Amino acid sequence: MRERVRLALAACFYYSGLVYLAHWWIRRFRPSLIILNYHRATDVMLRHQMRYLRKHYRVMHLDEALEAFFAPGRKSHMADRRLPLVLTFDDGYHDNYSSAFAWATELRVPITIFLIPGYVESGSRFWWLEGKRLATYTPTKDVTLEDQTYDLERSEERVALAKTIDTRVRFAPSVAVREEQLDHMRTVLAITPQSPVEQVDREALPLTWAEVKEMEQSGWVSFGAHTMHHPVLAYLQDPEEVRREVAECRQVLEGHLGHPVLSFAYPIGKLEHIGTHGVQAVKDAGYRWAVTTIEDVNTYQTDHYLLRRLPGDITQHWLIMAAELVGLLGLSRRRRKSRERRSR
Hints:
By secondary structure, the protein is an alpha/beta fold.
């Protein structure tokens, strides 16, 4: 019911012209750059959102938008007076190719994807999906971890086990330790790399280099860096591993793409996840920009290495998005869903 009320309000705001008026007010009195942060692209509502954004915003690739927004004399040389906006996708799921790329090409909407080369090269499942996968497909009826026994005949116990696994690997002090922990859990839970009962979610696997190349050649997709193996930088014990994860990612991407990679996205992306060495590692590696998941718009005063992003919601009706982006509806539901995703 609450969502229907929000949709009705959003429709009133849009069709009465209030959204247009809010656009004008922001352009005149509060210039800003909106960067949206998506991950998956599995819902067709994303296509409707992209169609709306194409009409009402100046949608750009990330590097292009940042260059234009922060350039000297920016107010005088921008012929397109619409609010600038960027669509970003973190991690590089296959559905970014099968869905987001298809819609970007169809609607002529540029998007930017942040890649994790270690996963592109290995084709392995992303570590943050492994807890749920292992707890779902283990044939084991019960397991004891950290002095707690989980009765896996009960669905709520499988959920609890998945959270325990996720927490253990999320706080790993190195990538090597994280992978050792996952291998140990697969052994304990009797899960092979390809469990015979498992239904593989192809869309949740990483992109391939061939798909990356095809997308970039289209001109509608650009790419940024997201570390080599997606550790939480603040949790790594060795500052040298932080620097290596950040710098090597850029080197590998530039080798495959054939041009400089200037943008970086911090894994998970809040200040507590970036840590004391994260920002410096990004600067030392030669990136010009870095995006966080701190939920806000960017102004002329925003730190180029702590750029803000608003959480994208691929299930959200485009009318609600239209009202939210100009402040006529709060971002509470979107932020709540973003917190739920990070906690999984």
